[in-house]
Amino acid sequence: MSQDIVARAKPREKGYWYEDFEIGRTFVHHWGRTISQAENALFTTLTLHFNPQYTNVEFAKAMGHRDTLVNPLLVFNTVFGLSVQDLSEHGTAFLGVNELNHAAPFYPGDTLFARSTVIDQRLSSSKKGMGIVGWHTQGFNQQDELICEFKRSNLIFLREGPSR
Questions:
Q1: Whole-angstrom distance, CA of residue 68 vs CA of residue 120
Q2: Cα(79)–Cα(47) distance, integer angstroms
């Protein structure tokens, strides 16, 4: 690279600061993610989650499904991951997930999309220059059917936090 190109290059800032979150604001997360049968089999095997509904087509069909199910932990992790760039790029401590609900089956070849709504926001009483933000995140398939939902929260830096 020439020095001129490097001198003009500026990193694109990602994420939002505490002040950018207000209760009721909804974030539609980018792109979506299609989950393949191979990814499902690998995740299920690596996590030692040997429920035959995730690895055996005939068993899944006998249980009333059209195909194997995608492991719900993979569904959750994917929906969570889709939200990170918008919600917690300027965060530090992840404070937890509550009320995780898998509302409908998700199958290999389906695509996950996610959106999150701010449900809680308050300044931290113990961490100067930070606040706590909570979101209700929902994952949908390509037919816009609710697949997964949960609430999560993070400690987020204020725009003019202590180290800025």
A1: 37
A2: 18
DSSP state of 108: T
Per-residue pLDDT of 30-55, as tens digits, reads 889 999 999 999 999 999 998 999 99
Q: Tell me if 128 sits within 8 A of 95, measured CB to CB.
A: no
How far is C-alpha 164 from the geometric centre of its chain's CA atoms?
Answer: 27
Burial 134-158 (b: 16+ CB within 10 A, else e): bbbbbbbbeeeeebbbbbbbbbbbb
Which is nearest to 74 in space by CA: 117, 123, 108?
A: 108
Q: Which fold has domain 15-157?
A: Thiol Ester Dehydrase; Chain A (3.10.129)
Q: Where are the domains of the chain?
A: 15-157
16-25 pLDDT per residue, tens: 899 999 999 9
With 0-12 CB in 10 A as exposed, 13-18 as middle and 19+ as buried, what is 82? Answer: buried
Please give the model's pTM, rounded to 2 decimal places: 0.86
User: Residue 23, CB half-sphere, CA atoms under 13 Å: how many?
Assistant: 5
Q: Can you give the length of the chain in residues?
A: 164
